[in-house]
Amino acid sequence: MERETLDNSKIIGILGGMGPEATIELFRRIKEKTPAHRDQDHLRVIIYSNPAIPDRTEAILHGGETPLPLLKQTAKVLEKAGADFIAIPCNSAHYSLDSIREAVRIPVLDMIGETAHAIKEQAVGLLATDGTVQIGLYHQACAKRGIEVFQPEAADQEKVMQIIYRIKAGKEKLPLRQEANRIVKKLQERGAKAVIVGCTELSLILKQDGIDVPLYDALDILAQASVSKALSVAQIDI
């Protein structure tokens, strides 16, 4: 089949800004996963990085300002701009997934569900924000597939939150990665056969290298799901 451009592919909309570096990382991974040999082979992506969206964990657990109005508004901007579907590189924002979906007429990918579907092991550890952990986003999605979820003990969960906010603050990543790896090791010792990287900031530091159990990086899984959906209507030989 003769090579064509991807004009018949779907346009990806990224609802970002939570935080901006994670948004950039999703775009980078989409680019890496696209089977492209030239500029014209890459996918069309519309990014709305809206850092004004209030802190999701603060809203979920402590009654802080709700992020929902700005989440819905940002989704509507992407729809109006021409996106065919939306990817949200923020795990805790998926607490509002149903409401976001109701606000637009285009599909919104479910990063939590995509990640749970990818897991092959029956017991996994979870590294995520307090909000994601305590409202049970991954616990519920994994329970549907018969997967047990281990979360860090209280002191380690506190460290996880410190790591996440240090990443957001632009702190040096290597020491943070080493500390996160130690928490992964503890989850493994408690019986986790794999670990979910369930915060997009943690996706910036955690790597499979040096970890003995499989990592299911939700941001990476979202990137692959985005590419697959965008190419689902494109019949093209590249």
Short description:
Helix content is 45%, strand content 12%. It has 238 residues and is an alpha/beta fold.
Description:
By secondary structure, the chain is an alpha/beta fold. The protein has two domains: 12-111 and 222-230, Rossmann fold, CATH 3.40.50.1860; 112-217, Rossmann fold. The chain is 45% helix and 12% strand. The chain contains ten helices and seven strands. It has helices at residues 20-33, 56-62, 68-81, 97-103, 111-118, 130-134, 137-143, 154-168, 173-189, 218-230; strands at residues 12-16, 45-49, 85-87, 123-127, 148-150, 194-197, 215-217. The strands form two sheets. It has a four-stranded parallel sheet, with helices on both faces. Helix 8 packs antiparallel against helix 9. The longest helix has 17 residues, at 173-189.
Write the layout of secondary structure elements.
Blueprint (H helix, E strand, L loop, with lengths): L11 E5 L3 H14 L11 E5 L6 H7 L5 H14 L3 E3 L9 H7 L7 H8 L4 E5 L2 H5 L2 H7 L4 E3 L3 H15 L4 H17 L4 E4 L17 E3 H13 L8
Parallel strand pairs: 1-2, 1-3, 4-5, 4-6, 6-7
State the strand order across the main sheet. Answer: 5-4-6-7
Q: Domains counted in the coordinates: how many?
A: 2
**% residues in beta strands:** 5-15%
Poorly predicted sequence stretches spanning 5 or more consecutive residues:
1-5, 234-238
